[in-house]
Amino acid sequence: MKKSLILLFVIVGILFSSTTKEERVQQRVDELKKPLYNPFVENYILHEIKQLREENRNLKVELHETLAKKEIQMSNNVVNYATSTINNMFYIIAAATSLLVIVGWTSIKDTNEKVKNMIDEKTSKIIEEYEERLLNFERDLESRSKQVKRNQYEIEVTNTIHSLWLRASQESTPSGKVEIYDEILNIRPDEVEALAYKADAVLDMGEANWALNLTNQALEIDDSYANAYYQRAKIYAVLGQDENAILDLEKSIELNEQYVKEIENEQEFESLVKHEKVQKILKLKATA
Protein backbone atom coordinates (compact mmCIF):
# COMPACT_ATOMS: atom_id res chain seq x y z
CA MET A 1 0.00 0.00 0.00
CA LYS A 2 2.82 2.38 0.89
CA LYS A 3 4.64 1.66 -2.40
CA SER A 4 1.46 2.33 -4.38
CA LEU A 5 1.03 5.75 -2.74
CA ILE A 6 4.64 6.68 -3.50
CA LEU A 7 4.23 5.59 -7.14
CA LEU A 8 1.02 7.63 -7.40
CA PHE A 9 2.77 10.77 -6.09
CA VAL A 10 5.63 10.32 -8.59
CA ILE A 11 3.21 10.01 -11.54
CA VAL A 12 1.24 13.08 -10.42
CA GLY A 13 4.50 15.04 -10.08
CA ILE A 14 5.63 14.10 -13.61
CA LEU A 15 2.29 15.08 -15.13
CA PHE A 16 2.30 18.39 -13.26
CA SER A 17 5.89 19.16 -14.39
CA SER A 18 5.06 18.32 -18.03
CA THR A 19 1.97 20.54 -17.98
CA THR A 20 3.92 23.45 -16.46
CA LYS A 21 6.66 23.09 -19.07
CA GLU A 22 4.13 23.13 -21.94
CA GLU A 23 2.48 26.24 -20.48
CA ARG A 24 5.90 28.00 -20.30
CA VAL A 25 6.69 27.10 -23.91
CA GLN A 26 3.28 28.30 -25.08
CA GLN A 27 3.68 31.51 -23.08
CA ARG A 28 7.08 32.14 -24.64
CA VAL A 29 5.66 31.57 -28.14
CA ASP A 30 2.81 33.99 -27.44
CA GLU A 31 5.28 36.66 -26.28
CA LEU A 32 7.31 36.54 -29.49
CA LYS A 33 7.07 39.86 -31.36
CA LYS A 34 9.30 39.11 -34.32
CA PRO A 35 9.48 36.11 -36.66
CA LEU A 36 12.25 33.60 -35.95
CA TYR A 37 13.49 33.70 -39.45
CA ASN A 38 13.69 36.11 -42.32
CA PRO A 39 12.51 34.62 -45.61
CA PHE A 40 14.30 37.31 -47.60
CA VAL A 41 17.65 36.32 -46.07
CA GLU A 42 17.05 32.62 -46.67
CA ASN A 43 15.94 33.23 -50.27
CA TYR A 44 19.01 35.38 -50.91
CA ILE A 45 21.38 32.69 -49.60
CA LEU A 46 19.64 29.88 -51.52
CA HIS A 47 19.83 31.97 -54.71
CA GLU A 48 23.53 32.58 -54.17
CA ILE A 49 24.20 28.83 -53.64
CA LYS A 50 22.23 27.98 -56.77
CA GLN A 51 24.12 30.56 -58.83
CA LEU A 52 27.50 29.30 -57.59
CA ARG A 53 26.60 25.70 -58.40
CA GLU A 54 25.47 26.66 -61.90
CA GLU A 55 28.68 28.62 -62.51
CA ASN A 56 30.76 25.69 -61.27
CA ARG A 57 28.86 23.22 -63.48
CA ASN A 58 29.18 25.49 -66.54
CA LEU A 59 32.89 25.89 -65.90
CA LYS A 60 33.38 22.11 -65.73
CA VAL A 61 31.47 21.63 -68.99
CA GLU A 62 33.52 24.34 -70.68
CA LEU A 63 36.73 22.76 -69.35
CA HIS A 64 35.83 19.32 -70.76
CA GLU A 65 34.88 20.83 -74.12
CA THR A 66 38.15 22.75 -74.28
CA LEU A 67 40.15 19.63 -73.45
CA ALA A 68 38.36 17.63 -76.16
CA LYS A 69 38.94 20.35 -78.77
CA LYS A 70 42.61 20.65 -77.83
CA GLU A 71 43.12 16.90 -78.04
CA ILE A 72 41.52 16.76 -81.51
CA GLN A 73 43.51 19.76 -82.67
CA MET A 74 46.78 18.31 -81.40
CA SER A 75 46.05 14.95 -83.10
CA ASN A 76 45.35 16.71 -86.42
CA ASN A 77 48.52 18.74 -86.09
CA VAL A 78 50.61 15.62 -85.42
CA VAL A 79 49.13 13.85 -88.45
CA ASN A 80 49.70 16.91 -90.65
CA TYR A 81 53.23 17.22 -89.35
CA ALA A 82 53.99 13.54 -90.10
CA THR A 83 52.54 13.84 -93.60
CA SER A 84 54.45 17.03 -94.30
CA THR A 85 57.68 15.54 -92.97
CA ILE A 86 57.39 12.44 -95.17
CA ASN A 87 56.64 14.55 -98.25
CA ASN A 88 59.55 16.82 -97.46
CA MET A 89 61.80 13.81 -97.09
CA PHE A 90 60.84 12.56 -100.54
CA TYR A 91 61.42 16.01 -102.00
CA ILE A 92 64.78 16.28 -100.31
CA ILE A 93 65.85 12.81 -101.46
CA ALA A 94 64.74 13.57 -105.01
CA ALA A 95 66.59 16.87 -104.96
CA ALA A 96 69.66 15.24 -103.47
CA THR A 97 69.60 12.52 -106.10
CA SER A 98 69.38 15.09 -108.86
CA LEU A 99 72.18 17.03 -107.29
CA LEU A 100 74.34 13.93 -107.08
CA VAL A 101 73.83 13.24 -110.78
CA ILE A 102 75.00 16.80 -111.53
CA VAL A 103 77.94 17.20 -109.15
CA GLY A 104 78.96 13.57 -109.00
CA TRP A 105 79.30 10.92 -106.32
CA THR A 106 82.27 12.58 -104.66
CA SER A 107 79.96 14.92 -102.68
CA ILE A 108 77.66 12.21 -101.24
CA LYS A 109 78.95 12.58 -97.71
CA ASP A 110 78.57 16.36 -97.70
CA THR A 111 75.09 16.13 -99.16
CA ASN A 112 73.98 13.59 -96.53
CA GLU A 113 75.26 15.84 -93.76
CA LYS A 114 73.43 18.85 -95.16
CA VAL A 115 70.20 16.90 -95.54
CA LYS A 116 70.50 15.57 -92.00
CA ASN A 117 71.14 19.05 -90.61
CA MET A 118 68.17 20.50 -92.48
CA ILE A 119 65.85 17.78 -91.16
CA ASP A 120 67.17 18.15 -87.60
CA GLU A 121 66.81 21.91 -87.69
CA LYS A 122 63.25 21.81 -88.99
CA THR A 123 62.26 19.05 -86.57
CA SER A 124 63.72 20.96 -83.61
CA LYS A 125 61.87 24.10 -84.60
CA ILE A 126 58.53 22.28 -84.86
CA ILE A 127 59.12 20.51 -81.52
CA GLU A 128 59.84 23.84 -79.81
CA GLU A 129 56.64 25.33 -81.19
CA TYR A 130 54.56 22.42 -79.93
CA GLU A 131 56.28 22.50 -76.53
CA GLU A 132 55.37 26.18 -76.19
CA ARG A 133 51.76 25.49 -77.16
CA LEU A 134 51.57 22.58 -74.74
CA LEU A 135 52.99 24.75 -71.95
CA ASN A 136 50.38 27.43 -72.59
CA PHE A 137 47.67 24.80 -72.63
CA GLU A 138 48.88 23.38 -69.30
CA ARG A 139 48.87 26.87 -67.77
CA ASP A 140 45.34 27.48 -68.97
CA LEU A 141 44.24 24.10 -67.63
CA GLU A 142 45.84 24.81 -64.26
CA SER A 143 44.13 28.19 -64.07
CA ARG A 144 40.74 26.66 -64.80
CA SER A 145 41.33 23.90 -62.25
CA LYS A 146 42.07 26.51 -59.60
CA GLN A 147 38.87 28.32 -60.54
CA VAL A 148 36.90 25.10 -60.09
CA LYS A 149 38.47 24.56 -56.66
CA ARG A 150 37.69 28.16 -55.66
CA ASN A 151 34.07 27.68 -56.70
CA GLN A 152 33.83 24.46 -54.71
CA TYR A 153 35.29 26.20 -51.66
CA GLU A 154 32.87 29.10 -52.07
CA ILE A 155 29.94 26.67 -52.21
CA GLU A 156 31.11 25.01 -48.99
CA VAL A 157 31.49 28.38 -47.28
CA THR A 158 28.07 29.50 -48.48
CA ASN A 159 26.48 26.29 -47.19
CA THR A 160 28.13 26.82 -43.81
CA ILE A 161 26.95 30.42 -43.61
CA HIS A 162 23.45 29.38 -44.68
CA SER A 163 23.27 26.86 -41.83
CA LEU A 164 24.46 29.56 -39.40
CA TRP A 165 21.71 31.92 -40.60
CA LEU A 166 19.15 29.18 -40.00
CA ARG A 167 20.51 28.71 -36.48
CA ALA A 168 20.33 32.45 -35.85
CA SER A 169 16.72 32.57 -37.03
CA GLN A 170 15.84 29.84 -34.53
CA GLU A 171 17.79 31.37 -31.64
CA SER A 172 15.57 33.25 -29.18
CA THR A 173 18.13 35.09 -27.02
CA PRO A 174 20.06 38.17 -28.22
CA SER A 175 23.34 36.87 -26.77
CA GLY A 176 22.90 33.57 -28.61
CA LYS A 177 22.26 35.43 -31.87
CA VAL A 178 25.40 37.53 -31.33
CA GLU A 179 27.54 34.38 -30.97
CA ILE A 180 26.17 32.97 -34.23
CA TYR A 181 26.68 36.28 -36.09
CA ASP A 182 30.28 36.28 -34.82
CA GLU A 183 30.78 32.84 -36.40
CA ILE A 184 29.52 34.24 -39.71
CA LEU A 185 31.82 37.26 -39.44
CA ASN A 186 34.80 35.00 -38.68
CA ILE A 187 34.19 33.37 -42.07
CA ARG A 188 33.27 36.58 -43.92
CA PRO A 189 34.41 39.71 -42.03
CA ASP A 190 32.81 41.98 -44.65
CA GLU A 191 29.31 40.41 -44.36
CA VAL A 192 27.32 43.65 -43.90
CA GLU A 193 24.08 41.76 -43.30
CA ALA A 194 25.59 39.92 -40.33
CA LEU A 195 26.93 43.22 -38.95
CA ALA A 196 23.48 44.85 -39.19
CA TYR A 197 21.66 41.93 -37.57
CA LYS A 198 24.31 41.70 -34.87
CA ALA A 199 23.75 45.40 -34.17
CA ASP A 200 20.02 44.72 -33.75
CA ALA A 201 20.73 41.89 -31.29
CA VAL A 202 23.28 44.00 -29.38
CA LEU A 203 20.71 46.80 -29.12
CA ASP A 204 18.26 44.31 -27.60
CA MET A 205 20.96 43.61 -25.01
CA GLY A 206 20.98 47.31 -24.10
CA GLU A 207 24.39 48.05 -25.69
CA ALA A 208 23.45 51.03 -27.87
CA ASN A 209 27.00 52.37 -28.38
CA TRP A 210 28.31 48.95 -29.38
CA ALA A 211 25.41 48.57 -31.80
CA LEU A 212 26.15 52.03 -33.26
CA ASN A 213 29.76 51.01 -33.93
CA LEU A 214 28.59 47.86 -35.75
CA THR A 215 26.22 49.77 -38.05
CA ASN A 216 28.98 52.26 -38.85
CA GLN A 217 31.24 49.35 -39.85
CA ALA A 218 28.52 47.95 -42.09
CA LEU A 219 28.01 51.32 -43.83
CA GLU A 220 31.76 51.72 -44.37
CA ILE A 221 31.65 48.46 -46.33
CA ASP A 222 28.38 49.19 -48.18
CA ASP A 223 26.89 52.68 -47.92
CA SER A 224 23.80 51.62 -49.87
CA TYR A 225 22.65 48.89 -47.46
CA ALA A 226 19.18 49.96 -46.30
CA ASN A 227 19.00 47.75 -43.20
CA ALA A 228 22.17 49.30 -41.76
CA TYR A 229 20.57 52.78 -41.95
CA TYR A 230 17.37 51.42 -40.44
CA GLN A 231 19.19 49.78 -37.53
CA ARG A 232 21.25 52.92 -36.93
CA ALA A 233 18.05 54.98 -36.90
CA LYS A 234 16.74 52.74 -34.09
CA ILE A 235 20.00 53.18 -32.20
CA TYR A 236 19.93 56.99 -32.55
CA ALA A 237 16.33 56.97 -31.33
CA VAL A 238 17.38 55.02 -28.22
CA LEU A 239 20.28 57.44 -27.64
CA GLY A 240 17.89 60.39 -27.95
CA GLN A 241 19.48 61.75 -31.14
CA ASP A 242 16.19 62.31 -32.95
CA GLU A 243 17.56 64.36 -35.85
CA ASN A 244 20.14 61.72 -36.76
CA ALA A 245 17.50 59.01 -36.35
CA ILE A 246 15.15 60.79 -38.77
CA LEU A 247 17.92 61.27 -41.36
CA ASP A 248 18.82 57.58 -41.28
CA LEU A 249 15.15 56.63 -41.34
CA GLU A 250 14.61 58.72 -44.47
CA LYS A 251 17.67 57.13 -46.11
CA SER A 252 16.55 53.58 -45.31
CA ILE A 253 13.06 54.22 -46.71
CA GLU A 254 14.58 55.82 -49.81
CA LEU A 255 16.55 52.61 -50.40
CA ASN A 256 13.75 50.24 -49.38
CA GLU A 257 10.16 51.43 -48.97
CA GLN A 258 9.21 48.24 -47.11
CA TYR A 259 10.51 49.81 -43.89
CA VAL A 260 7.54 52.21 -43.87
CA LYS A 261 5.36 49.31 -42.75
CA GLU A 262 7.69 48.45 -39.86
CA ILE A 263 8.23 51.87 -38.28
CA GLU A 264 5.08 51.94 -36.17
CA ASN A 265 5.75 48.41 -34.89
CA GLU A 266 9.24 49.15 -33.59
CA GLN A 267 9.46 49.82 -29.87
CA GLU A 268 12.49 52.10 -30.36
CA PHE A 269 10.38 54.45 -32.56
CA GLU A 270 7.50 54.90 -30.11
CA SER A 271 8.44 58.50 -29.31
CA LEU A 272 10.01 59.26 -32.69
CA VAL A 273 6.94 58.25 -34.69
CA LYS A 274 5.06 61.21 -33.22
CA HIS A 275 7.62 63.62 -34.63
CA GLU A 276 6.31 65.95 -37.32
CA LYS A 277 8.98 65.00 -39.85
CA VAL A 278 8.32 61.29 -39.38
CA GLN A 279 4.60 61.84 -39.84
CA LYS A 280 5.29 63.67 -43.10
CA ILE A 281 7.45 60.77 -44.31
CA LEU A 282 4.71 58.27 -43.49
CA LYS A 283 2.01 60.33 -45.17
CA LEU A 284 4.15 60.96 -48.24
CA LYS A 285 4.88 57.28 -48.72
CA ALA A 286 1.29 56.35 -48.04
CA THR A 287 0.07 58.57 -50.89
CA ALA A 288 2.89 57.56 -53.24
From TrEMBL:
Cross-referenced InterPro entries: TPR-like_helical_dom_sf (IPR011990), TPR_rpt (IPR019734), Ycf3 (IPR050498)
UniProt KW Transcription regulation keyword: no
Transmembrane intervals: 89-108
TPR repeat start and end residues: 226-259
The UniProt record lists the keyword Transmembrane helix: yes
Alphabetic keyword roster: Membrane, Repeat, TPR repeat, Transmembrane, Transmembrane helix
SMART domains, per the entry: TPR (SM00028)
Protein name, as recorded: Membrane protein
